Amino acid sequence: MTHLLLHHIDTLATFDAERRRLRNAWVLIHDNRIEAVGGGADPEPTADERLDLTGRVVLPGLINTHHHQFQSLLRNIPSLQDSALFPWLRDLGRLMGALTDEDLYTASLLNHAELLLSGCTTAADHHYLKVNDIRFDTCVEAAREAGIRFHLLRGSSSMGQSQGGIPPDDQVEREDDILADCERLIRTHHDPAPGAMTRVDLAPGSPFAVTARLMQQSVELARRHGVGSHTHLAQSAEDEQYMHAKYGRSSVEMAEEWGWVGPDVWFAHATCLSDSDVARVGRTHTGIAHCPNSNMYTAAGCCRVPELLQAGATVAIGVDGSAANNASNLIDEVRNAMLLQRMCHGAHALSATQALELATLGGARLLRRDDIGVIEPGRCADLIAFDTRQLSLSGGQHDPVAGLVLCETGRVDLSIINGRIVVAGGQLVRIDLPALIDRHNRLAGALVARAEKRSGVSFTRPVWRRAYPYEPAAA
Ligand code: ZN
């Protein structure tokens, strides 16, 4: 039973009910929990170990609520660079069919490395691809190796292109098999106890990847087991057109009909909500994972975050798939959430601290966890520290917490998850990063080469469109 004292903290942003910011502060960690917090004239407690955090801003670890980690092997695919969402998904499907379990493990570990270094301490991976030898358990195993707190969002596709869906026919599972495997994964990996390092939530890919029957059965199964439900919803105008053409209603109206609203449900994106959809999501306290980089890259639209928050929804942040974002940098995502919301909804739409609240308090609420997201006694010891003495923050220390979002922040200096140090001095403690990057690059090249051979399509011929004279994209 050890006590670790983080002390001489320049600024401690607790995100507690009073939103206290303490100067010259300390945090006492006992095993995996925060035991005490103080600052200013409060006497420092004794401890077995001490870590001097002079010049650092400390805040709760950030929470990522939507991701597809395998996609880091498919970053920056030249033939996908200028696609809108549905054609992008179709082309991505042709590449995904070649993925193996070794690819998935390596991509997951690589994403955890990037997430950890960008301040994430709890990651949720929406994995929906079951091809070749892929196991969903692999996502859990990679998270354990990285030492990150993890929610496996058991994704699925059951409605292939021949049934009017978007996924390729050879990438769908039988619905009974999906539901049986969801139960198996909950039994095997889901820990409902406070402080859990691994949880499982159920996450059919989207209403254009599974049937209405599976949507309904999945949320019923989730509620029987007390786990959450997640899916993509209202991702783009094409998505809404699909729902209106197929069901004659909006995505959110259909979600409500299927039982897919409530505090145990969250949607990724929700970029195309009508006024009544916003009111419905808010009234039912449903969650939204806002993924600004992905929304900008796929030109999907802009989530109405301020109105959703005002209506009563929980909004959190997600980096989304590494092919739709091309990065898995969570503090960068927080910054872009703030910038995009201001661009779409005005200068007062989202402040720097509000954006940080989405990634801490919002993420914890959305994952229905009252044990993370705040630095206060009794919570899990998930904390991050940024060194304020870096080039990009220089001159911006008048408000050191907002500066983390307004300025370019770079890597965390320190990250502690469940009381264990996972990043120290800006370096990963548990992962050999150069070796991992080598392996990841090798597997990415081999994966795309296999997909090209199988499909006869070239995905990797570099694209150079001229701005002078302006060269429009081919249709
Ligand atoms: Zn997604």
By secondary-structure content and strand pairing, the structural class works out as: alpha/beta
Total helices: the number is 15
- Proportion of β residues? 15-25%
Q: Strand tally, please?
A: 17
Q: What is the share of helical residues?
A: 25-40%
Uncertain segments are none
Question: What is the rounded Rg?
Answer: 22 Å
> pLDDT average, as an integer?
96
Largest sheet: 9 strands, mixed
Bound molecules: zinc ion
- Distance between the first and last residues' Cα: 63 Å
Shape: globular
In short:
This protein is of the alpha/beta class and 475 residues long.
Task: Describe what this molecule looks like in 3D.
This protein is an alpha/beta fold and 475 residues long. Strand 7, helix 3 and strand 8 form a beta-alpha-beta unit. The model has no long low-confidence stretch (mean pLDDT 96). The longest helix is centred in the C-terminal third of the chain and has 23 residues, at 433-455. It contains 15 helices and 17 strands. Strands 1, 2, 3, 4, 5, 14, 15, 16 and 17 form a nine-stranded mixed β-sheet that branches. Helix 8 packs across helix 10 and helix 13 packs across helix 14. It binds zinc ion. Residues 66, 68, 232, 268, 320-321 line the site of zinc ion.
